[in-house]
Specification:
Length: 880
């Protein structure tokens, strides 16, 4: 930047320095005739209006700080932050000259404490307190120098790229600025909870304050190494070394430092104001500072709820894979999806040293990324666009994946893709055995086997249709260590026959292991599977093929993905005891309003609501499920929620009657999912509509109120759409098939004018949205009127109130819109993507009658995708 450049009415005169948060220049305010400091934000801000807007909001808050020990913020101009110009050396420059005498260090520390106390009282945390962010003016007139704390709270507003430069001055290590679980701060001054990706509060500043106090008194960095990774490792794994403190350091100061540097935030000094008091009278020890805490209780499994910093990931992986920590060590660290994207599939390599994942980025492109757990970098694999259901070869060299109508493989190091076989349906996972046999699943059928070298798929398991058992599909295979036996999830029309099965390539006689309908994995002597959103582990002997003991939870709110009708939990594990899972649970999300551009318009107050939201016909109420178990009613105007269902079963998939007087839903109170209704004003008990051994799920009610459309798992044809008459006064309501083919038809919704039904079908080999005329039972419902609406994949159709526009969740993970004209002839427009969204089969979305607002579950904050958590030696937490 030219030194004569002008920004607004500020004339740049010289460059003062440059760091991770941007370059800093001296400038003259030509209006007020004063010198100021201007921080020019990184170039990456130029093309990120959301980031700039967020930064401006944060700067406005920070500008409210008015304290003599805090450098003032004067304003924001485009990508420039206008700040008070503070003359004098930084604390880093002063420490570089050697230890600061106690009588000089104490006043400096006291002024820093006063600045922190003032800001904390305002609800603002610095997050990046370090010597370079503290200036000390020269002493004058017998008075000590004035301390000015710089960049207060900017770590929250900024989100620069990581750097492998000097860790003592590394930039703020942050991937996103408003996500619970992120890492913010500079490596050598981050608190242990920051390095672990846990939420940050004022206790992070207290830790950094303690580090600065030690460095002032000793003249050397407390945590320093050649790389950011090694520096973070010292923070996480080494106890603070206070042996270098001067011998004359008062006991009160030593006690204060120990309390500030307690690794357990629950035992750390609670308020920086107590530090200020201690520094005002070093000969006394305030009670709050000297208080001893009881030994911290250790959680059975200390997972990180969410984290997104690659630097922490690298350091923890570095220690495991390069320096071999003790066998008893358990290491937990987060990894982030591509910027603006979210994880779809996660797959650990069998040797536990690499992770592959398919993920979308901010553009909606989905491809495979590979990362060594000893590296910071993730590499996209060209030629893997649209990849799903990925799994590794036994030697950890290749990754197999589904894309379109093919099963392919690619070297983990990169290279051309190779087709293994064609598939005729929507994939449901695969597994690669030691002898080169690959098991795959697609559409609603049994597992198939195919050689890894290529060939025609052959049946490996058969759907059980005998003895009243109605298998619908086998999915998510997982080979056990012997390469012959494997696990799979069987979905049945009878809930007591669904669950995880064990079978062999040498036998067609499977055994039922677990009732939970979930994908499963074997790791380090345990069977891993999901139950009610939690990841469970049960001891499993891979030699005798027997389970023992009870299943115990190891992680909460494991994320769920979905392909057509096949839901899966996003976790993976290696035989060696490395685990990865994606925590995108309902507790971290809220129903959120979006406009057509994807801008957030507000959230509903009730946490955990996210399943199948439906807006009442008058737009004043919302019905949705909470955590897939209970249904709630929300008064939109008052933003007040009321529990609607109270039975002992799981309740889900609510649908409004056209007059808004009733809510129809599915409930498993009696075993399988049956159809019920209840008055929307809760004036009476729930009423049973249809009960059978086969599970059923409401999708919509016809505009005239005559028919309830529902999906049902049929023994021979899989998922089909049925109609249940609602106006039979005799009460003998018999369902009739609306659409029943070998393909999976589901999510049928009536157009508001009652003339059309939009639904999802995988008849083309992937889920797409189709449109067909609606004719009541007894009339011709042939294929002649069917039209394909979506292109490149589509699910969860919703109509605009005038029946002239349709919305759906596209194969690019976006909400798409398409115009529909039905008179004089049917004309379907070109689908237009509106904005990115990440929905599971349990979530879906709703849209207002005017098509201007969309309602769906979204993470609290501004992130599009949550981080995943990697756990090395995960079984250690299960043992006393």
């Amino acid at each position: 930047m030219s030194q004569q450049q002008t920004i607004a009415h500020y004339r740049i005169t010289s460059k003062l320095g440059e760091g991770g948060m941007g370059a800093v220049y001296r400038a003259t305010d030509t209006k007020l005739n004063r010198d100021v400091a201007i921080k020019i934000l990184p170039d990456s801000f130029a093309n990120d209006p959301d980031r700039l807007a967020r930064f401006t909001r944060e700067a406005q808050v920070l500008a409210s700080l008015n304290h003599p020990n805090i450098a003032a913020i004067y304003g924001v101009e485009e990508r420039a932050l206008i700040m008070e110009l503070v003359e004098g050396p930084t604390l880093a420059e002063r420490i570089a000259q050697g230890p600061i005498p106690l009588d000089e260090a104490v006043p400096i520390a006291r002024q820093m404490a006063e600045a922190l106390e003032y800001a904390h009282d305002k609800g603002i945390v610095h997050r990046d307190l370090k010597p370079a962010n503290v200036k000390v003016t020269e002493p004058a007139g017998g008075q000590p120098g004035r301390v000015k704390v710089l960049d207060f709270g900017l770590a929250k507003a900024l989100s620069p790229e990581l750097s492998a430069a000097n860790p003592a001055n590394s930039p703020t290590l942050s991937m996103r600025a408003t996500v619970a679980g992120m890492i913010m701060g500079t490596a050598g001054y981050m608190s242990p909870e920051q390095a672990k990706g846990k939420p940050v509060d004022r206790r992070a500043d207290i830790w950094a304050f303690g580090v600065l106090l030690v460095e002032m008194l000793t003249g050397r960095a407390m945590y320093a190494a050649e790389t950011i990774s090694e520096t973070l490792a010292s923070v996480l794994l080494k106890e603070p070394d206070l042996s270098g403190l001067p011998a004359q350091t008062p006991a009160a100061i030593r006690t204060l430092i120990r309390r500030c540097l307690d690794k357990d935030p629950q035992r750390r000094l609670r308020d920086i104001g107590e530090a200020r008091i201690a520094l005002e009278n070093p000969g006394a020890v305030p009670e709050a500072v000297a208080a001893r805490s009881a030994p911290a209780r250790r959680s059975p499994l200390p997972w990180i709820a969410a984290g997104v910093c690659l630097a922490a990931f690298a350091v923890l992986a570095f220690f495991h894979f390069r320096e071999s920590p003790p066998e008893t060590a358990q290491i937990v660290f987060p990894i982030a999806p591509p910027e603006g994207g979210a994880f779809n599939f996660l797959a650990l390599s069998p040797d536990g040293r690499q992770i592959a994942y398919s993920a979308g980025d901010s553009s909606g492109k989905v491809q495979i990324w590979v990362r060594s757990l000893a590296s910071l970098a993730a590499r996209p694999l060209p030629g893997t666009d649209g990849a799903s259901g990925l799994f590794w070869s036994p030697d950890s060299r290749f990754i197999a994946f589904f894309a379109g109508t093919r099963l392919l493989k690619v070297a983990a190091s990169g290279g051309p893709t190779q087709t293994i076989c064609a598939i005729n349906g929507t994939d449901r996972g695969g597994s690669w055995g030691r002898d080169g046999t690959i098991l795959i699943s697609y559409s609603n059928q049994g597992l198939l086997s195919v050689p890894a070298s290529g060939g025609e798929p052959k049946p490996a398991t058969a759907l059980d249709r005998a003895n009243g058992v109605r298998d619908v599909s086998h999915r998510w295979p997982w080979f056990l260590p012997d390469g012959r036996h494997f696990l799979y999830d069987a979905r049945s029309a009878r809930p007591d026959q669904s669950g995880i099965y064990l079978a062999s390539l040498d036998s067609r006689d499977p055994s039922h292991l677990v009732l939970d309908d979930s994908n499963a994995a074997y790791s380090a002597g345990y069977l891993l599977f999901a139950r009610n959103g939690n990841l469970m582990a049960q001891a499993f002997d891979a030699a005798s093929l027997r389970l023992s003991g009870d299943a115990v939870p190891v992680a909460e709110q494991v994320g769920q993905g979905q392909i057509a009708d096949a839901a899966y939990s996003r976790f993976s594990a290696s035989e060696s005891g490395v685990l990865v899972y994606d925590s995108t649970g309902a507790s971290a999300s809220r129903l959120t309003w979006f406009d057509r551009q994807g801008k957030r318009l507000g959230m509903l107050v009730e946490p955990g609501l996210g399943g199948q939201p439906r807006i009442s016909p008058d737009g004043k109420r919302i019905v949705a499920s909470q955590a897939g178990s209970e249904i709630y009613l929300v008064d939109v105007g008052r933003d007040v929620s009321t529990r609607f269902t109270f039975n002992k079963g799981v309740n889900m998939f609510p649908a409004w009657s056209p007059d808004g007087h009733r809510v129809y839903y599915a409930s498993a109170a009696a075993g399988s999912f049956d159809l019920y209704w209840k008055s929307a004003d809760m004036s009476g008990p729930e009423e049973l509509l249809l009960r059978s051994e086969i599970s059923k799920y409401p999708t919509d009610v016809s505009p005239d109120g005559r028919f309830l459309m529902f999906s049902q798992l049929s023994p021979k044809t899989g998922i089909d759409l049925f109609l249940l008459p609602l106006t039979d006064a005799g009460g003998d309501r018999k369902p009739v098939a609306f659409l029943q083919t070998p393909a999976a038809e589901q999510s049928g919704v009536f157009s508001p004018d009652g003339k059309w039904v939009a639904y999802t079908s995988d008849e083309s080999g992937r889920s797409e949205i189709y449109l067909r005329p609606f004719s009541p039972p007894g009339t011709d419902r042939s294929q002649a009127g069917q039209r394909q609406v979506s292109k490149g994949g589509g699910q969860f159709a919703r109509w605009r109130g005038d029946s002239r526009e349709l919305y759906y969740f596209s194969g690019e993970n976006k909400i798409a819109a398409v115009t529909i004209e039905t008179s004089p002839t049917v004309q379907i427009g070109v689908p237009r993507p509106l904005f990115g969204a990440f929905l599971s089969i349990a979530q879906r979305f709703a849209v207002t009658a005017d098509g201007q607002r969309f309602l769906m579950a979204a993470p609290v904050g501004e992130a599009h995708g949550a981080p995943a958590t990697v756990v090395v030696n995960w079984t250690k937490a299960l043992k006393p």
